[in-house]
Amino acid sequence: MLLLTAHGADRARAAWDRWIDTTVLPPLAVPVGTEVLARDGTLLRAFPVGDGLWRLAPPQEGVDPRFLSMLVGWEDRRFHDHDGIDRRAILRAAWQAVTHGRIVSGASTLSMQVARLLERGRTGDWRAKLRQARVALALERRLGKERVIDLYLRLAPYGGNTEGVRAASLMWFGKEPRRLTPAEAALLVALPQSPETRRPDLMQARAAARAARDRVIDRALSLGIIDAEAAGTARATPLPEHRRSFPAHAALLADRLRRENPGARTIETTIDARLQVAAERLAARAVAGQADPVSAAILLADHRNGDILAQVGTAQFADGASGGFVDMTRAPRSPGSTLKPFVYALGFDEGLIHPETLIEDRPAAFGRWQPQNFDNRFRGTVTIRQALTESLNLPVVRVAEALGPARVMAAFRRAGMEVAVQGDAPGLAVVLGGAGVSLADLVQGYGTLARGGTPVRLHDRPGVPEAPGAPAIGAVAAWQAANVLAGIQPPGGQAAGRVAFKTGTSYGHRDALAVGFDGRFVAGVWMGRPDGTPVPGAFGGDYAAPVLFDLFNALGPRSVSLPPPPQAALTGPNAALPRPLRRFVPPGSLADSGSSFRAPELLTIQFPPDSAEVELVGATLLVRAKGGTPPYSWLLNGAPVAVGTSEPTAELPVRAGFASLSVVDAKGRSARVEFRASGGG
User: Fold this and answer.
1) Most CB within 10 Å of its CB: which of 14, 360, 380, 654?
2) Active site amino acids
3) Looking at the whole model, is its pTM more than 0.85?
4) Could you tell me which residue ranges the Glycosyl transferase family domain spans (predicted)?
């Protein structure tokens, strides 16, 4: 008899196991919204899932342990002991129903609730309860307790289109559920039981929400999860009065990254969450109170490694009146005067000019084009430093004409800027803003100046960026341009010298710009209207520059001083310069006038050839020029290394690597080559 009983029990147990093991489970993959994260894991922007639900995966750091203890203590005290169904709770519920003639308490476990949520099943029907019990048993057997809890944390309903504890915590408290107060944890435990009738943002439901929350607090106190003092504080805590918006920082960047990474659950970025919020506030403040819709864009990067730390594509996201859907960090716009430093830097690099070189700011015609200064005044003879500091137009056009528009455009590209022009051949007007360039490219170009002429590739995703190519500008020339920009007077009476910057205003006041850098950071600010209509009275110095300096001020102690001059830099007044650098003389023109005229022989560098690779023997290189008028001055990477030589040859100290070599003759004519030196010792 005992053997028959044992055999029957084994058969019953086997049948029970088969019943559980053959359970067809609902799909266990719970779609969650894409999250775009800052460099420290902070949520920048979340997106709803395809059906419009706000549902997010629990944070990787986990949910507040006190919340989990309250949840188990309230919903399923024997969760860690049962196999998916609580037989004691079932017997208790059945006895209470018989003795009271009605249902007094339920027996649904957390695992059964997960089963119902996965299948979107009913709650009161006994057949539905049986199905939920079977699925709960199978879930626990196949997934384990931890995964079951994870599913609950994703699926628990919190009213409307919000599911999951993380979305609820962000919606009600504006924070991640990693750390919750007892009052917050209790409310998040209570809401899923009746999410629509306990919504604390609805006046008619606030009393029910408070009562349900306080019952959870009382249970937590009785179970020793919190003490009496914490319980009293929790009961006295006001309920949240409104639903909060989900984070939408770096909104346009997040939109683009989600499009570029379809299906990704998390997208990591290089964005610094604190600096991003600060930049967004600055942009919003800059456009507040404007009579007409005006937008702003801000880009901040670490030029040492190219990490983009803050990117504001619009001041008012989703505001159609101000073009809130247009990312103005990537839109080509007129750069105004912000390209001038690169023209002068190229002139420095080629030995054509020096910051203290004298140049004429007088009316001139370049073909049929007669450019004017912004204020329609001319200053006469000025230094290059003054011409750039005051953003004079005639001097930079003279230098650009001497260099040639094609070489200027090539310098822009080497610095990391794609400058779009109308037609096939660029004209001189490009240096005054007659072209299109994005704010991102401008900031990238200024990052090249900040790095001593070495290009940097800005990026918004973590990882090793593409290796930069050869130096775009010599280190001395880059420092000279930065030194001039650092001397420009900042807005608001701030001290000069901390940030090298330049402002720009496009024709018709359509764009106001300011771009600058210190020893670590490079940033740019654009203000205007995305549709290109004018903003009367908008100047880069008045509109954009104050925002730029507020941004640098927000960096606080992270800001780094500008570097000292390279050892090879030639500093000093005009009188201390080599004679050919004291006054700008366009190549091919005569420095003096005489009764006789003989066409000068073209000045060229015969050795090393342009774009050649040269093998060094020792630490010097014999260079040779042809033509021109002695004496000659030789510049290596923008720094004078041999001045006033009577012969067209010179032995120069050269190190391995990329280098630019320039020669200037007595008439101010110049020639330039680039080469790569290898070997040596």
Assistant:
1) 654
2) 75, 337
3) no
4) 54-218
